[in-house]
Amino acid sequence: MSLTNGGSTTAVKRKATTSPGPSKKPKSAPSRFDHSRKEEEYIVDREFYPPQMSNERCAMYKNNELERPIETLEKAQKETKAWRDKLPVKDAVIHWFKSDLRLADNKALHLASEKAKSKNVPLICLYVVSPQDFKAHARSPVRVDFMLRSLQVLKEDLDEFDIPLVILIEEKRKNIPNLILERCQQWGASHLFTNIEYEVDELRREALLTRKGVESAVAVDTVHDTCVIQPGLLSSGSGSQYSVYSPWFRAWLSYLHTHSYHLKLYDEPKNNPSITREKFKELFNWPIPDAPDNKRLTDQERKRFESMWPAGEHEARDRVCKFVNERIKTYKETRNFPAANATAVVSVHLAAGTLSARTAIAMAQESNTTKKLDGGISGIAGWISEVAWRDFYRHVLVHWPYVCMNKPFKPEFSGIQWEYENRMFEKWSHGVTGYPFIDAAMRQLNFSGYMHNRARMGVASFLAKDLMIDWRMGEKYFMLHLIDGDFASNNGGWGFSASTGVDPQPYFRIFNPILQSEKFDPDGEYIRRWVPELAHVQGKAIHDPHGRGAKGILAYPKMCVDHKTSRNRALARYKAGLGRDNA
Questions:
Q1: Which of 175, 446, 453, 512 is catalytic?
Q2: Per the domain annotation, does 331 fall within a domain?
Q3: What is the per-residue pLDDT across 120-154, written as a single tens digit (0 to 9) for each?
Q4: Dihedral through CA 472, CA 473, CA 475, CA 481, nearest 10?
Q5: Is 418 labeled as catalytic in the residue annotation?
Q6: Which sign, positive or negative, has the C-alpha torsion 555, 556, 560, 564?
């Protein structure tokens, strides 16, 4: 996928907000909205979240009439800055790890180390495991397992610098700020550093933590690190935020070419003072916990995923290095073929933060013939443009936060008639739809926790348009099974495929699953690997075995829907939902 239009990168001028924060409803907000719809039952997790917001309230975010969560955090940081700058360093400095499980090129960790070194006090690192948080964010068991294994690598690496890593467990997610501040006080730390995560819950939590920090005499510094260019720095000539990738990407490139310091890689932390092991002896023996009961793998699964997905930042860098040395030059020509092993497969490391996007780009740049991010070897430039998609979707999430609240980027698509109580979802999720390319992709996901990006687009289009099942059910299924589950990218990809999101494919563009199979798996190699019932089928029959007379395939199901009929149904429902019956 790729998209974006030029324009300046000046800061957008915004109207004054009508709300002091997300917890207070503006007087102008509509009070009536139908919460009895099926999507409320199937999509909104009411254990943790309120009913789905109205389209009118989404429009208020679009029109700058509601304070965005990023602005709530920025306000908290701005209003406490003078106090935080004056607060003296006490007995220790703390870095809070989240989705940044690495030592190299970690901005908040680097700043925490510099602060500790300036007063020659110990740096303490922590991570918080919250089973409730994992559930609320649909975190997959395989990703939790990868995170815990990465923490073990991280702990061993920090140990060489005499830096302890403490993993705290807090069942209730709302208690996380208080837990962290209590530990700061217990260890005599007056300064806490952490990198910003851009989901709504996290932004609001860090805003609360910043203000609570003042009450507890702890300076909380939140740092932009996840994106190469932090959200908010890029805007069009008219001052608006980009909602199309192509012009956004051109602005992203232009900004980096004139502000190259954004690609600066941050040094690893400095060694702790020699007194650290004596003063905080018990912290060095802190164990890596088992996965919570609600996210635990079987022993067999753990062994399989450990073999398939080695954890930690060293593995991440090795994987990028191998890709750059062996496959990146032909990336543009081969990246769309799932059987080709042509991609870097580092999305798991970007999601866990065992690799930074800056480091990935730097490693690719080193082997290029130019320093221009969009020049030189086409495969390298193409790969960098794919890494940039992570930034784009985060920029979208920050500016249009309602996409994090079960709403499509285009709220007008809320009127489409979706299916919910449907056995077809079970067929799709188990990979028994009768469409070999779709089934191969879903079986790859269920077995490995991963799916090739081209296949993700195919199965998403099939669910949303051939089956007319609410795309958000597929979005959640992916998050519950992917090892590289990343909310912003996953939401963006599903919105694109369902034509409900930012920069979507037109609603009338509906992938033909057989043609997709013939185009991107022409020899059927991908299908044969993941659908063993068809391993013996030769030639083009592999793409439509029942329709093309393949023999010995009784164990493989017939197509669950007719694509032509389903396509016509999808077009009718999209038109009706958008009020275009006569279009």
A1: 453
A2: no
A3: 999 999 999 999 999 999 999 999 999 999 999 99
A4: 160
A5: yes
A6: negative
Residue 383 belongs to a domain: no
- What's the whole-model pTM score? 0.92
Give the separation between CA 369 and CA 54, rounded to whole angstroms: 51
Confidence tier at 344 by pLDDT (50, 70, 90): very high
**Is-catalytic flag, 386?**
yes
Within 8 A by CB and 6+ apart from 191, the residues are 87, 89, 93, 94, 112, 115, 218, 219, 221
Model confidence over 58-106: pLDDT tens digits? 999 999 999 999 999 999 999 999 999 999 999 999 999 999 999 999 9
Q: Is residue 105 part of a domain?
A: yes
Look up residue 286 and give its DSSP letter. P
Answer whether residue 522 is part of any domain.
yes
Tokens 């007063």 sit at which residue? 119
Query: Whose CA is closest to 335, among 380, 305, 391?
Result: 380
**Of the listed 386, 419, 518, 525, which one is catalytic?**
386
> Which residue pairs, CB below 8 angstroms and at least 24 apart, start in 314-320?
314/153, 315/349, 315/354, 316/102, 316/346, 316/349, 316/354, 316/355, 317/104, 317/355, 317/359, 317/363, 319/344, 319/345, 319/346, 319/349, 320/344, 320/346, 320/355, 320/359, 320/360, 320/363, 320/364
Q: Tell me the C-alpha distance between 358 and 426, whole Å.
A: 39
From the candidates 187, 471, 475, 530, which is the catalytic residue? Answer: 471
Of 187, 418, 428, 530, catalytic: 418
Of 389, 400, 428, 530, which is the active-site residue?
Answer: 389
Looking up residue 503, the CATH number of its domain turns out to be 1.10.579.10
pLDDT in tens, 174-226: 999 999 999 999 999 999 999 999 999 999 999 999 999 999 999 999 999 99
Number of residues that this document lists for the chain = 583
Based on the residue annotation, tell me whether 282 is a catalytic residue of this protein.
Answer: no
Chain-centre distance of CA 520, in angstroms? 25
pLDDT at 20 over 70: no
Over the stretch 457-469, which tens digit does the pLDDT of each residue have? Answer: 999 999 999 999 9
Structural domain count of the chain:
2
Last residue of a domain, one of 244, 276, 308: 276
Q: By percentage, how much of the chain surpasses pLDDT 90?
A: 88
Up-side HSE of residue 238: CA atoms within 13 Å toward CB?
5
Using pLDDT thresholds of 50, 70 and 90, give the confidence band for residue 427: very high
- What's the mean pLDDT when you consider all of the chain? 93
- Quickly state the pLDDT bin for 160 (edges 50, 70, 90): very high
Contacts of 52 (CB under 8 A, 6+ apart): 33, 35, 39, 40, 43, 44, 405, 406, 407
Cβ count near 95 (within 10 Å): 29
Enclosing domain of residue 513: 413-577
Q: Is 96 a catalytic residue?
A: no
Q: Distance between CA 401 and CA 199 in Å, rounded?
A: 8
